[in-house]
Amino acid sequence: NWWSALAFANAVSSAEGRAECYALSGCISSPGNAMDCTGVTVNSPTGSVYDCEGYRLPTEAEWEYAARAGTDLLYAGSDSVVDVAWYSANSGDISRRVAALAPNDWGLYDLSGNVREWTWDWYDAYSTSPSVDPEGPASGTSRTLRGGSWYFSRSFSRVSNRDFRFPHYRYSDAGIRL
Q1: Which one, of 83, 82, 128, lies nearest residue 104 by Cα?
Q2: Residue 60 contacts by C-beta under 8 Å, 6 or more apart in sequence?
């Protein structure tokens, strides 16, 4: 789930001697290692994730920028979904080994399909925020996921597709990219 993703980012940061990006509060773990917390603040001088020293989830804007890689292709690396994405028609209903299909123009794999990826942002309609380092809404009920997955049809794997889920729920087709 989203909370576990934040805790993992902090653990990787600590392991490498970096400051943790997130201060999680009110956390409890349930059977199966699901985590639920009541709050999170960003450990940076400005309170912005852009100023974190440690590992973190990308903002939704960062995720899309990386997926597009300076192109306007339908999928991350191609206009043909089968070149770059594991989705319902070709996945066999399971996640697949990373980097088994073609990368995008920046050498990044699996931004379309395989698993949806949690982002830092709350889900809401796109805003009129600045186009340089935009931050998502300050609050909400669901967090944004991007990229489609092995479970969904190819339309969900398009770079432009957005999805949302409650942060405390676990999903077998969701993952992270720090």
Answers
A1: 83
A2: 119, 120, 121, 136, 144, 146, 162
SS3 content of the chain, % helix, strand, coil (to 5): 20, 20, 60
Looking up tokens 């087709």 gives 173
Average pLDDT over residues 19-26: 98
Phi, psi of 54 (to 5 degrees): -85, -175
Q: What is the pTM of this model?
A: 0.93
Tell me if 148 sits within 8 A of 157, measured CB to CB. Answer: yes
Inter-residue contact 9 to 57 (CB < 8 Å): yes
CA distances from 79 to 60, 61, 71, 73, 161 (A): 21, 21, 10, 5, 14
Q: What is the pLDDT of residues 133-156, one digit of tens each?
A: 777 888 999 999 999 999 999 999
Structure tokens that stand for 10 in this block: 């902090």
How far apart are alpha carbons 171 and 115 in whole angstroms?
Answer: 10
Q: What is the pLDDT of residues 115-136, one digit of tens each?
A: 999 999 999 987 666 677 777 8
Measure CA of the first residue to CA of the last residue in the chain; give whole Å: 14
The per-residue pLDDT for range 90-105, each reduced to its tens digit, is 999 999 999 999 999 9
